[in-house]
Amino acid sequence: MRKFDKLRDSKEFSKLYKEAKRWHCEAGVIFYQKSDECKIAFIASKKVGKAVARNRAKRLLRAVFFTMQTRLKEGKYILVAKQELLSLSFLRLKKNLEWGFKSLECLK
After folding, report:
1. Which of 16, 41, 92, 108 has the most beta carbons within 10 angstroms of its beta carbon?
2. Segment 91-95 mean pLDDT
3. Of the candidates 35, 17, 100, which has an alpha carbon nearest to the alpha carbon of residue 61?
4. Contact, 64 vs 94, CB < 8 A?
């Protein structure tokens, strides 16, 4: 099983936001850029809600991502939560993100 490191550098974030492929779904936005290293970031802005809601949204995104990580190609990922994510069931969220990863062609 591969280990995903965290994206931390603001320059990397800026580069990914500009150059990466993106997919919008009802749960959020997925940014993907093919790379030799495996990095990931989970983001929930204040539009999602207060701190408790933002943390829950990021926890849900992490849980879904790490159930699927063995099927994903190497690269850099950013998952941005939308407010609608909190009202989705876990299975629907998983299907939603799986469809997004498939559309971005980052599934093996």
Report:
1. 16
2. 94
3. 100
4. yes
Contact indicator for 71, 108 with CB cutoff of 8 Å:
yes
Backbone angles phi, psi at 17, to 5 degrees: -60, -35
Determine the residue type at 73: K
Residues 95 and 48: their CA atoms lie apart, in Å, by 20
Percent helix, strand and coil across the chain, each to the nearest 5: 45, 25, 30
What is the pLDDT confidence band of residue 108, given thresholds at 50, 70 and 90? confident
Identify each DSSP E strand in the chain by its residue range: 5-6, 21-24, 28-34, 39-43, 75-81
Could you read off the pLDDT of 38-88 as tens digits, one per residue?
A: 999 999 999 999 999 999 999 999 999 999 999 999 999 999 999 999 999
